Amino acid sequence: MLNQHHSKQRRVVVSGMGVIAPNGLNLESFWRNNLAGKSGVRNVSQFDVSEFDAQIAGIVEGFEPSEFGLNETQIESLDRYAQFALAATNMAVEDAGLTDNNVDNERLGICIATAIAGTKFMEEEFLRQTDNGKAPFSLDGVPQNLLSGACFHTATSEIAKTLNACGPQQTLATGCTAGLDAIGHAFNTIRAGLADVMISGASEAPLTPIAFGAFDIIGALTSDSNDNPEAASRPYDTSRSGFVLGESCGIFVLEELSHAIARNAPIYAELKGFGSTCNAYHMTNLQPEGHDLHRAMVAALQDAQLSPDKIDHVNAHGSSTPQNDVNETNALKKTLGEHAYNIPVCSSKSQIGHALAAANAVETIAAILALKHQQVPPTINMQKPDPQCDLNYVANQAQAHKIENVLKDASGFSGIHSALVFGKCDTQSWGE
């Protein structure tokens, strides 16, 4: 169902955010570096990449879990992606001013996304238990937390335990759209009256040989800028040659509007519409016309009850692959018509790489901050724009722009497309 919600349903706002990214470990540093076009793409040094074509990634440096409120058990037993999720959640909850005293824990839910979950933890544990794959696997010495390392639900359950959240709990694994899907699912959960507050977003730490190799072997990763990492991710440029794998996390506090107003919560934006489709075409390939991404965008606009000309900014998927960037440009033109040429469209992946499920969660944070500050961060590394990608992609320098409503889109392996519409919250019309 593409348009199943109605205007009288409960309104949902963003009241808190937390981010862990290659170019910022909090909202302030992330926004400052994002606006300045500072890249977080670096040479991989965590493991030997000499046998891989690609040797660079969007890497989070300086992350110390203890500085973000994680306890000793969480530091010792959890995969890096789950640590990111807890750290960003603590940040978002503090940002929102959420406490045990102003939220009913039975009305507090969790929806977190990840594409590969604890793959890093499992790979490292396998190598440890088998002498780097040379010995049979033995249960002797296997840690008790092996199961939690294998489960996709670990980050969600750890957040729930930390916050004593007893409302709905979900984990999504829809690949590269999963962060947006988690936000959309949490949005719908609150609209349906099943929760008043949802902690939602996505986390990913895929910088491990088996995950890195999986993308490298199919030629998805760019490998022509290993000696110049910051220039590697170049969406919409004629020379683009693949995406840069990255790690990051973006977490949101989503809240029913009257609940947020009652506790005098900060309000960044109002979520207005969500749509998701599938092209049922191919695991990795995209057809250039962008029809199915267009359908997701239309569904989100219909859900938001907004016409295309009400969109003032698009934070794009912009993965820097030859296929995606043309597909997305055509989808935007189909959806927005001539208006597509009048608004700024940017790709955060040019700066931080592609963190799979977490990519669009972090990009949504960038877009919400653009809404707040009325500034659009640049798509860096655009030296020679592809003639087929002829929109205003905010090349290399931030642009000031009046923004009321934002469209965020995402596409993923296996053909999923998702779109989210959000904008300024008019609290004056609350209760009408």
Automatic annotation (TrEMBL):
What are the annotated GO cellular component locations? cytosol
Mind telling me which PROSITE patterns this protein's record contains?
A: KS3_1, KS3_2
Among InterPro entries, the record links this protein to: Beta-ketoacyl_synthase, Ketoacyl_synth_AS, Ketoacyl_synth_C, Ketoacyl_synth_N, PKS_Beta-ketoAc_synthase_dom, Thiolase-like
Q: In which pathway does it act?
A: Lipid metabolism; fatty acid biosynthesis
The UniProt entry, under Pfam families, shows: ketoacyl-synt, Ketoacyl-synt_C
Q: Which residues form the Ketosynthase family 3 (KS3) domain?
A: 9-424
Q: What is this protein called?
A: Ketosynthase family 3 (KS3) domain-containing protein
